Amino acid sequence: MSFLLSLRHWQAFLLIFVLPFLLQFTLPRIAATTGFSIGEAASTAIDALPTIFLTVWIWQVGVLMHRRLPSMINISAIYLHLGALYFVLYTMLLVYTFALVRESITEGTLPFGMLVLLLPMHLFATFCFLYMVYFTARSIVSVQHQRIVEFGEYAAVLLQIMFLPIGIWFLQSRLRQLPRL
After folding, report:
1. Which domain of life is it from (predicted)?
2. Is residue 102 part of a domain?
3. Do 72 and 49 touch, CB atoms closer than 8 A?
4. Which range of residues forms the domain containing residue 115?
């Protein structure tokens, strides 16, 4: 996946944002015209594609930057991996749950117990996403400076990752400038 670092900003934008939305809207229509029935699991995966593409990009850039960290910086990427996995699985569960209770949501009769169950899971998914963004942003700047960095040094990169549709235009050129290892 190191090709992610060599993409131009417009290529990364197309890969992370345009392609998943095109797939999300065209795959069901192609299946319908060919008479192929898409199951619930495939439909859930298709609906979660934009979030999955975004998460995989953040995760892979974090992994690639972690491998390039100087030897004096000794951090584990296990929480990055677990956070990405949980976030993707939770996204698919949330999309699937909303598909099942679509009528209840529109009628305003969503069971309170479901909200109580989803709230802590959603808060933990938010924490996992924010940790992935933090880890990736700090790793990018640490690789650039070849030392441990403080919050002020990687805050701009953190915001670029959090607002990735806009930040990708600046962030991808920064990734391309990193020396090849």
Report:
1. Bacteria
2. yes
3. no
4. 3-176
Domain count, the chain: 1
Q: Which DSSP string do the residues of 107-172 spell out, in sequence order?
A: HT---HHHHHHHHHHHHHHHHHHHHHHHHHHHHHHHHHHTS---HHHHHHHHHHHHTHHHHHHHHH
Average pLDDT of the residues in 72-83: 94
Query: How many of the other CB atoms lie within 10 Å of CB of 32?
Result: 11
Residue 28, classified by CB atoms within 10 Å of its CB into exposed (0-12), middle (13-18) or buried (19+), is middle
**Two structure tokens written together for 14:** 């197309």
Check residues 51 and 134 and name the one with the higher pLDDT.
134
Domain assignment present for residue 38? The answer is yes
For residue 105, tell me if it sits in a domain. yes
Q: How far apart are CA 23 and CA 17, in angstroms?
A: 10
Alpha-carbon distances, residue 4 vs 36, 72, 85 (angstroms): 33, 25, 19
Q: How confident is the model at residue 11 (pLDDT cuts 50, 70, 90)?
A: confident
Report pLDDT digits (tens) over 112-154.
Answer: 777 788 899 999 999 999 999 999 999 999 999 999 999 999 9
Please enumerate in sequence order all residues whose Cβ is within 8 A of that of 131, keeping only pairs 6 or more positions apart, or say none: 79, 80, 83
Residue 168 lies in a domain: yes
Task: Please tell me the pTM assigned to this model.
Answer: 0.85
